[in-house]
Design brief:
With 121 residues, the chain is an alpha+beta fold. It contains 1 helix and 8 strands.
């Protein structure tokens, strides 16, 4: 009986740690799909890319952040979102990427299983 109780306590503690990590760190944030947001003011220059995003499809989703990779003549942008909580409340995100983008011809939003063209020159 004592062993079963210790296993149950360990399981509850593990679930609690996972919940806290996902709620406060964005650890389990997902890539945001193009259909879930509105894109405006996309601009690409030789030294920067900027765009304004807002979540339109769901009031329960908020932005968690973004990252990017330059691959050849492409700039791939990865935007993460998750459920709203005390730490993550923003449904609007302004992205400003300052880098050498002189060789970039197109900017893509990378999604689960696909991509969407955001801007090209």
């Amino acid at each position: 009986m004592k062993k079963v109780l210790m296993i149950a306590v360990a399981c509850v503690c593990t679930i609690l740690v996972i919940f806290l990590l996902s709620s406060y760190t964005g650890l389990f944030a997902n890539l945001t799909s193009y259909e879930e947001m509105r894109v405006s003011n996309a601009a690409l220059t030789d030294s920067s890319f900027s765009v304004d995003l807002s979540i339109e499809a769901s009031s329960a989703l908020t932005f968690r952040g973004y990252s990017y990779k330059i691959k050849g003549d492409r700039l791939n942008v990865y935007v993460r979102s998750g459920l709203v909580n005390k730490r993550f409340k923003d449904t609007k995100l302004s992205i400003l990427i300052e880098d050498d983008l002189s060789g970039v011809k197109s900017v893509y939003l990378m999604e689960q299983g696909g991509e969407t063209l955001l801007c090209s020159r």
